Amino acid sequence: MSQPPPVAVYRSNAHLAHAGLVELLAGRQIPCYESPERAVAIERALLGAGGYELREPQAFGLEPILAVHDRTLVDVVEHAWTDALAAGADGSHPLIPDTFKLAAYSGPMEPLALPSAAHLRLGAFCFDTATPMVAGTAAAARAAVDVALSAAHAVVDGAALAYGLCRPPGHHAARAMLGGYCFYNNAAIAAEWLRRDGGFARVAMLDIDYHHGNGTQQLFWERGDVLYCSLHADPARAYPYFSGFASERGAGAGEGLTRNFPLPADTSLDGYADALSEALDAVAAFDPDAPLVVSLGFDTFERDPIGDLALRTADYAEIGRAIGGMGPRTVVLQEGGYAVDAIGANAVAFLGGLREGREAG
Ligand code: Q9C
Ligand code: ZN
Q1: 299 CA to middle of ligand 1, Å?
Q2: CB-side neighbour CA atoms (13 Å) of 208
Q3: Nearest C-alpha to atom 3 of ligand 1 is from which residue?
Q4: What is the pLDDT of residues 209-243, one digit of tens each?
């Protein structure tokens, strides 16, 4: 038997400057869970495990981002920090909006004018107080997209599997809204690229982050060519609260192509594997011709500081094997996971399982 080729791990150091982050949680200011150390730990663990090769992403520019997000959102991400500095901010603390423009604010009054300074518009494009911006945020968000697109390219060019170590994550970012530590929806941008430029007709996305990927769901809600399946903590008790119920199934051409699997607290591998097998059946029934796009989160881990599910490190190998056993080529993109001391081992377990599943399947 010949050695399998190393799996490409796309990563960029641009994320290191998306740092010094704080979030507002339940009235308190705390260090942001979404830290640079997370990605550094994954990178180290994969290098230590062997069989992985770190690669720099290619730069794809704003065009593939604008295929998914409104220019109004991109403008805010690109200019909020520099406009705040130009208006006299000293740059010593992150930008977090304090005023949110809900649909209920405008009622029948749309369109309302917005301030021309991007930092003053931020609250019209953001849904929570957990998504701070600093000087390095825009470049990090762009690099995370480049990481995702580079991984998608690698698989289209023939690799069975590629991993994009995206940071910041992406699945909470919607067409014209950031939040949940996410600015640009890396996985959605990769999926849309597979459709438009990869020459594929049907793309399946599997989201196994602890949280519902509200952004991804919104982006493909009415799309007949993209299946979105998500396993996550039941929004009846967990962030983002306003989406991810099983009753949400898409609309129009996308009717039935959004599938949500809300999970109870303390779900361990048994319950998780049942939901996963239903989701994988839905993927198989959709019959995608494109590589599978996986939004991978390790906030389902038993000791995750913001999750309440009960998966263990070895369980990620099982989950990887189940997904890998499906057969299609796979683009794995990192989303959440905040137990920094375990996130590296969890990534090694998941990707190792995925490789085994592919070889066995
Ligand atoms: N009490 C990702 O995992 N804070 N984003 C939730 C609930 C925001 C998670 C607080 C969590 C965002 C990519
Ligand atoms: Zn998450």
Answers
A1: 9
A2: 28
A3: 336
A4: 999 999 999 999 999 999 999 999 999 999 999 99
The DSSP symbol for 258 reads: E
- Least Cα distance to 14 among 128, 134, 175, 124 occurs for 134
What's the average model confidence in pLDDT over 333-354?
Answer: 99
The answer, yes or no, to whether any atom of ligand 1 lies below 6 A from the CB of 172, is yes
Does a structural domain hold residue 195? yes
Residues 29-86 have pLDDT tens digits of 999 999 999 999 999 999 999 999 999 999 999 999 999 999 999 999 999 999 999 9
Question: Exposed, middle or buried, 304 (CB in 10 Å: 0-12/13-18/19+)?
Answer: buried
Identify the CATH number of the domain in which residue 309 sits.
3.40.800.20
CA 131/CA 314 separation, integer angstroms: 31
pLDDT-derived band of residue 361, with 50, 70 and 90 as boundaries? confident
Asked if the model's pLDDT at residue 135 lies above 90, the reply is: yes
**Neighbouring-strand partners of residue 28:** 25
Could you tell me the pTM of the whole model? Answer: 0.98
Residue 172 known to be catalytic: yes
Q: What is the pLDDT of residue 203?
A: 98
**What is the total count of domains within the chain?**
1
Domain membership of residue 98 (yes or no) is no
Ligand 1, residue 338: give the atom nearest the CA: 3
Active-site residue, selected from the candidate residues 153, 171, 172, 212: 172
In 3D space, the residue among 135, 151, 109, 72 whose CA is nearest the CA of residue 334 turns out to be 151
Calculate how far, in angstroms, residue 180's C-alpha sits from the geometric centre of ligand 1.
Answer: 5
CA of 242 to the centre of ligand 2 (A): 15
* Nearest CA residue ID for atom 6, ligand 1: 239
130 Cβ below 6 A of ligand 1: yes
Specify the pLDDT at position 1: 55
Q: Is residue 106 part of a domain?
A: no
Q: Is 81 part of any domain?
A: no
Residue-range definition of the domain harbouring residue 145 = 7-69+136-360
The environment of the single-atom ion ligand 2, i.e. residues with CB closer than 5 A, is 209-211, 297, 299, 336
